[in-house]
Design brief:
CATH topology of the largest domain: Alpha-Beta Plaits
Radius of gyration: 20 Å
Strand content: 15-25%
Number of helices: 6
Shape: elongated
CATH superfamily of the largest domain: Lrp/AsnC effector binding domain/regulation of amino acid metabolism (RAM) domain
Distance between the termini: 12 Å
Strand order of the largest sheet: 2-3-1-4
CATH architecture of the largest domain: 2-Layer Sandwich
Oligomer: single chain
Number of strands: 4
Order of helices and strands: HHHEHEEHEH
Largest sheet: 4 strands, antiparallel
Structural class: alpha+beta
Helix content: 40-55%
């Protein structure tokens, strides 16, 4: 569990990760040295501070969600999961409950790239079938809101 000052600092970094350490220290009522140490601690715990890029600005015009039904044997599933995580087009991999076993999110430039990705997925021994959903419009995409809300509690 994060301490109150850690939560405050994380919230500030999420809102502007390029803020000067002296300004962060003022806002969080900490010393510059403490802020610097906390940021390094966050990094060692796997928290990255990076830029948000609109995928369409770099030519990734198509977002898709692919539901995957996999073979029930754990060996096949583990191999498929390992392979799928290596596909550069895929941004997220989630194991789910229900009719399907895995859902992946992918970003591709065009239909031909989607076709190639689906062929790679179908070539995996564990994959029994897939169902693909193409996003035609996104009205909200903001990973920050739930995190900032959780940090505010």
């Amino acid at each position: 569990m994060l301490k109150k000052k850690d939560r405050l600092l994380l919230k500030e970094l999420i809102e502007n990760s390029r803020e000067k350490i002296t300004r962060l220290a003022e806002r969080c009522h900490m010393t510059r040295q403490s802020v610097y140490a906390k940021i390094n601690s966050f990094r060692t715990r796997g928290m990255n501070f990076t830029v948000d890029v609109n995928p369409e600005e770099v030519g990734l015009n198509m977002k898709v969600y692919i539901l995957i039904e996999a073979e029930p044997q754990a060996k096949f599933r583990e191999e498929a999961d390992k392979e799928i995580r290596q596909f550069k087009e895929i941004t997220q991999v989630h194991h789910i409950l229900g009719r399907f076993d895995i859902i992946v999110e992918a970003l591709v430039k065009e239909r031909d790239d989607l076709r190639k990705l689906l062929k790679k997925i179908h070539a995996l021994p564990a994959v029994k079938k897939t169902e693909t959903f193409i996003v035609y419009e996104t009205t909200k995409f903001n990973l920050r809101d739930p995190i900032i809300e959780a940090l505010s509690e």
